[in-house]
Specification:
The chain contains 5 helices and 2 strands; from the N terminus they run H-E-H-E-H-H-H. By secondary structure, the protein is mostly helical. The chain has a single domain, classed as 3-Layer(aba) Sandwich (Rossmann fold). The longest helix has 19 residues.
Amino acid sequence: MTVIEAMSCGLPVVGSSVGGIPESVVPETTGYLCEPEDIDCFADRLAELGSDPKLRQQMGAAGRERVIDRYSQSVLVEKFEQVVRGAETQ
């Protein structure tokens, strides 16, 4: 949830490539993924974002758009209704 919340605020994400994070973050588009133990990767990506305001803005905007497209209330309600309708036909 933290990744989705950050993206909804227009923030690029530097996260670990574990759990559900890779499902939310599009590498090089909405942020970066690093292996959990790769401290150099995290440091390099954070430094890159810290030194490039345009890149931060682009990735942040792309992340916000991804959240709106995939996780907005209307999208989640629609998906829930599809599941319920599917259960009713079984």
